[in-house]
């Protein structure tokens, strides 16, 4: 009976892409030992970008099997509630489908390992009941792993919601002191339905056979040592941790108008002269904030490539969207903006080919939301960053990027959550012109070389991955 590795991702681009890359990695190095099967969940939160990505991957990656789970449905009234609650409910609803899928796959394959996205944590019990070894895959870095492993400990240190003690700094092993406001929003409020889900993720991670992290040894070395030394789980054994990153999607060689326009424009710009501004597939700003960015870019005098999404709220602190509507740039941006910047700026709607852009010779800086995929893409391209976190664990990533890794400078907000045009101007100029930016650029160049080495014959990520795969062979 052929051996297979089953992967269970979350159907969100930031999670799905790196899980698919993990599947490709397994096939690339161990196609003679394992096949790879990816479980595809379907439900009311499916988005066009995920659907398009899955269609493209299934058509172009014949070495991976895709097993589609039955589509889930919910009452329309339930879909108007808290997004975290909906996601949690859908994942729990899928457990019977996961059970059936694993049983079905086991009739024709020997399932050597079941790898689940950390958000899909409830599936651990399903695989355990079937006697299938289960591993976690963290799409974030060691910062996120430290947070989840230690969160049950922090949870037991107080009965208050952290949002009610806002001046408190929390102490996670290996991290700089973390202001309460830097935690993912559900972790700040004990009444949030996702709060206990986070606690459970932390507890379930300990019960797994191992934890894969999309990072590499020298990027987060002291923190990784803190975790593997057991300091994040002082009351139980820490499972083996495998740093198998950076797992980054390859640039697509597709004919696309946006791709062609972006790359053609970059081709006409001087080396390392362009600052790239992009805030992920779910990051969004208020109209007021978009206009502040525009004014700041105009006054900075710098060349820029800027991805603009349609505002969804006028709340300067609301930054997550599930919508994907195109913005009306003429109505959204300040009058005269395009005339003033047409010689040195390029604005695209909603999406740009980020990996290609970051690796382009003309790009010399990146203003980012600090989503982990974006961080890895910038690090692998050797591009220094301005850190502008928006949601999830991005504020914690920012703190580590700025204070520990020293690969980014911080964008500072005012009390109402707005980043001023003057701050945008100063940070962009500092990154592209000043000594502070030069130091970051040199540090980023060296880290790019380290990132390139991790998959060489004696590279740390290849060694970790080989150790993991050989354990699948022998168990």
UniProtKB/TrEMBL annotation:
**CDD domains with a match to the protein in the record:** GT1_Gtf-like
Domain of life the protein comes from: Eukaryota
Q: Which residues form a coiled coil?
A: none
* SUPFAM superfamilies in alphabetical order: UDP-Glycosyltransferase/glycogen phosphorylase
Keyword vocabulary terms for this entry:
Glycosyltransferase, Membrane, Transferase, Transmembrane, Transmembrane helix
Q: Name one Pfam family in it.
A: UDPGT
Q: Which residues cross the membrane?
A: 6-27, 134-153
The GO molecular function terms of this record are: UDP-glucosyltransferase activity
Q: Which InterPro entries match?
A: UDP-glycosyltransf_plant, UDP_glucos_trans, UDP_glycos_trans_CS
What Gene3D superfamilies does this protein map onto? Answer: Glycogen Phosphorylase B
- EC numbers, comma separated: 2.4.1.-
The similarity comment for this entry is: Belongs to the UDP-glycosyltransferase family.
Q: This protein is called what?
A: Glycosyltransferase
Q: Which organism is it from?
A: Protea cynaroides
């Amino acid at each position: 009976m052929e051996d297979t590795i089953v992967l269970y991702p979350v159907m969100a681009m930031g999670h799905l892409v790196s899980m698919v890359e993990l599947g490709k990695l397994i096939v690339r190095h161990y196609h003679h030992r394992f096949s790879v099967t990816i479980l595809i969940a379907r439900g009311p939160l499916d988005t066009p970008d995920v659907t398009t990505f899955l269609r493209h991957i299934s058509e172009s990656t014949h070495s991976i099997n895709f097993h589609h789970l039955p589509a889930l449905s919910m009452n329309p009234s339930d879909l108007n509630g808290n997004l975290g609650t909906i996601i949690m409910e859908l994942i729990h609803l899928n457990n019977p489908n996961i059970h059936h899928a694993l049983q079905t796959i086991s009739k024709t394959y020997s399932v050597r390992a079941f790898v689940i996205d950390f958000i899909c944590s409830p599936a651990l019990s399903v695989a355990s009941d079937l006697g299938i070894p289960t591993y976690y895959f963290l799409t974030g870095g060691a910062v996120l792993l430290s947070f989840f492993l230690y969160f049950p400990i922090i949870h037991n240190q107080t009965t208050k919601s952290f949002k009610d003690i806002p001046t408190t700094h929390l102490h996670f092993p290996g991290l700089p002191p973390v202001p309460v406001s830097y935690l993912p929003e559900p972790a700040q409020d004990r009444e949030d339905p996702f709060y206990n889900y986070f606690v459970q993720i932390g507890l379930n991670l300990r019960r797994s056979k191992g934890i894969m992290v999309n990072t590499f040894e020298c990027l987060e070395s002291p923190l990784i040592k803190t975790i593997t030394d057991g300091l994040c789980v002082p009351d139980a054994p820490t499972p083996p941790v495998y740093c198998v990153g950076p797992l980054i999607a390859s640039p697509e060689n597709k004919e696309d108008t946006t791709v062609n326009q972006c790359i053609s424009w970059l081709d006409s710009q001087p080396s390392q002269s362009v600052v790239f501004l992009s805030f992920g597939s779910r990051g969004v700003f208020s109209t007021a904030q978009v206009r502040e960015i525009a004014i700041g870019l105009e006054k900075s005098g710098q060349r820029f490539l800027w991805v603009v999404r349609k505002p969804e709220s006028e709340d300067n602190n609301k930054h997550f969207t599930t919508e994907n509507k195109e913005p009306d740039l003429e109505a959204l941006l300040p009058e005269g903006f395009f005339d003033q910047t047409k010689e040195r700026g390029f604005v695209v709607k909603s999406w740009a080919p980020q990996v290609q852009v970051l690796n382009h010779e003309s790009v010399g800086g990146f203003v980012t939301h600090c989503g982990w995929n974006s961080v890895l893409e910038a690090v692998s391209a050797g591009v220094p960053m301005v850190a502008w976190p928006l949601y999830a664990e991005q504020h914690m990533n920012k703190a580590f990027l700025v204070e520990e890794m020293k690969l980014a400078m911080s964008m500072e907000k005012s009390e109402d959550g707005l980043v001023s045009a003057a701050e945008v101007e100063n940070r962009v100029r500092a990154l592209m012109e000043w000594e502070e930016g030069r130091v970051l650029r040199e540090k980023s160049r060296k880290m790019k070389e380290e990132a390139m080495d991790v998959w060489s014959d004696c590279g740390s990520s290849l060694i970790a991955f080989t150790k993991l795969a050989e354990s699948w062979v022998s168990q």
